[in-house]
Amino acid sequence: MSNDPEPSAGGYRSGGVDDLPAIQRVDVAVFGKDLAYPYFVLRQLFDLFKEYSVVVDDDGEIVGYALIGVEPGSDASPAVAWLLGLGVVPEHRCQGYGGELLSRALDLCEKAGIRTVKITVRPTNASANKLYEKAGFRTVHAENTYFGPGEPRDVLCLELGRELAAVTY
Ligand SMILES: CC(C)(COP(=O)(O)OP(=O)(O)OC[C@H]1O[C@@H](n2cnc3c(N)ncnc32)[C@H](O)[C@@H]1OP(=O)(O)O)[C@@H](O)C(=O)NCCC(=O)NCCS
User: What is the pTM (predicted TM-score) of this model?
Assistant: First the structure.
């Protein structure tokens, strides 16, 4: 059993197209203009994967979101999910929202029968790496120019069936 504090009482729900302006504001606040998804990309990602999204609001304002994309599987090769976005605005961090968003996103994957979840993360991103390690993710690949020059990323992987028990927030 975890000794961690309970996540703050936010309102968690799946996201929809009506939430996109607020989600984009979160994305810009979290990643900056250069790395935030442009609105049209968010729109298309939500058209594809909105059932794999989670948003959290605090007093009616969306302060964080998680979005999963799914690579369809076949009999020979099961579906793989990628965490395409996870962010909490700076003024609401360290209140448990990030961990809970991740946990709920992983639950959606599990319910959909997905066993493998992947994430890319900057190797120096201490808070995100801590969250992912705690959830059981392990580094499987590292690439110095994953998102272009000066943008290294590690690829982390979680096998849900075997390691979901490690996800305790
Ligand atoms: C990563 C992120 C989503 C975490 O959100 P959050 O709401 O603060 O998450 P939580 O409150 O659930 O947990 C934060 C954990 O990180 C830890 N943490 C925070 N800042 C840290 C730092 N600089 N170094 C190490 N750990 C840190 C906290 O202590 C906490 O750990 P604990 O649960 O063991 O106490 C948030 O920091 C964020 O949006 N970062 C920018 C976007 C980003 O990097 N997204 C991931 C891209 S792959």
Answer: 0.90
Å from CA of 59 to ligand 1 middle: 21
Q: Which two tokens stand for residue 20?
A: 């996109």
Name the residue of 125, 127, 147, 156 to mutate for ligand 1: max ligand atoms within 8 A of Cβ: 127
Closest by CA to 85, choosing from 126, 26, 12, is 26
126 lines ligand 1 (CB under 6 A): yes
**Boundaries of every domain in the chain:** 11-166
Cβ–Cβ < 8 Å for 156, 125:
no
What topology is assigned to 11-166 in CATH? Answer: Aminopeptidase (3.40.630)
Per-residue pLDDT of the chain (169 residues; tens, 9 = 90+): 344 445 555 699 999 999 999 999 999 999 999 899 999 999 999 999 989 999 999 999 999 999 999 998 888 788 999 999 999 999 999 999 999 999 999 999 999 999 999 999 999 999 999 999 999 999 999 999 999 999 999 999 999 975 444 444 4
Q: How far are the Cα atoms of 4, 11, 17, 49, 163 from residue 46, in angstroms, in the given order? A: 32, 20, 7, 5, 28
Which of 68, 94, 151 is the pocket-test mutation for ligand 1 (most atoms within 8 Å of CB)?
Answer: 94
Question: How remote is the CA of residue 89 from the centroid of ligand 1, in Å?
Answer: 11
